[in-house]
Specification:
about 260 residues, mainly beta, two-stranded antiparallel ribbon, rod-shaped
Length: about 260
């Protein structure tokens, strides 16, 4: 006679007889001990790294951030932003290399976002400039034509050898003056008139033009120019007497 087997409600195995000892099994996945044909693993969420695992224990995986280089556990990581005290830039991670910049205005190198140029005063031309070197600007004086460096310039005075005037310009034109006394033209501040002698009356004069003064001789009645005059003697055709003057009166009616 065949005896019918019984099914264990705990482990699901079939056994014969009145009693049965269940055989415990170990899950190869989660390591838990169970009874029966099948087993559902218990899924656990790691509070440290955020990954899910099966079993009682779990080893967290250490990850390295490709951005900041810090190590972390879990799916996500917030990089720590640091402000550089030297250059003022923000960076991620434990170390940072400051970027050296060159100022386009003064040529100096600096670190950071902003830079204050160093203002220097040129001892030669008096202009202010930025940087280590400076090219002085050559200027031309509009008054005297000389070239100079700096903000201001003192013109050098020159004396004209012809007219004696003092001038500051590049080109100098002598002023032509006319003497009010003699009518001669001259250059300069002073002028000495040249005396002239009249060829008619012999008088010395200084003017451009001269009018001879006509005088009448009280002796002979003739007109003359100058200071002196020699009377010309005349002989009367009637009485034969020598006389001076324009007219002559014979003294006697008897002529010989």
């Amino acid at each position: 006679m065949k005896i019918a087997g019984q099914t264990c409600p705990r482990c699901g195995e079939t056994y014969y007889g009145d009693s049965h000892t269940c055989k415990p099994k170990t899950c190869h996945r989660c390591g838990e001990t169970y009874y029966g044909v099948s087993h559902t693993c218990r899924l656990t969420l790691c509070a440290r790294c955020g990954e899910t695992y099966y079993g009682d224990s779990h080893t967290c995986k250490l990850k390295t951030c490709h951005r900041c280089g810090e190590t972390y556990y879990g799916h996500s990581h917030t990089c720590r932003l640091t402000l550089c005290a030297r250059c003022g830039e923000t960076y991620y991670g434990n170390s940072h290399t400051c970027k050296l910049k060159t100022c386009h205005r003064c040529g100096e190198t600096y670190y950071g976002h902003s830079h204050t140029c160093r203002l220097a005063l040129c001892a030669r031309c008096g202009e202010t400039y930025y940087g280590d070197s400076h090219t002085c600007k050559l200027k031309t004086c509009h008054r005297c034509g000389e070239t100079y460096y700096g903000v201001s310039h003192t013109c050098r005075s020159k004396t004209c050898p012809m007219c004696g005037e003092t001038y500051y310009t590049v080109v100098h034109t002598c002023r032509l003056r006319v003497c009010s006394r003699c009518g001669d033209t001259y250059y300069g501040d002073s002028h000495t008139c040249k005396p002239k002698t009249c060829s008619v009356c012999g008088k010395t004069y200084y003017r451009a033009a001269h009018v001879c003064r006509v005088r009448v001789c009280s002796k002979c009645g003739e007109t003359y120019y100058g200071t002196s005059h020699t009377c010309k003697p005349k002989t009367c055709s009637v009485c034969g007497k020598t006389y001076y003057g324009i007219a002559h009166v014979c003294r006697s009616n008897t002529y010989s």
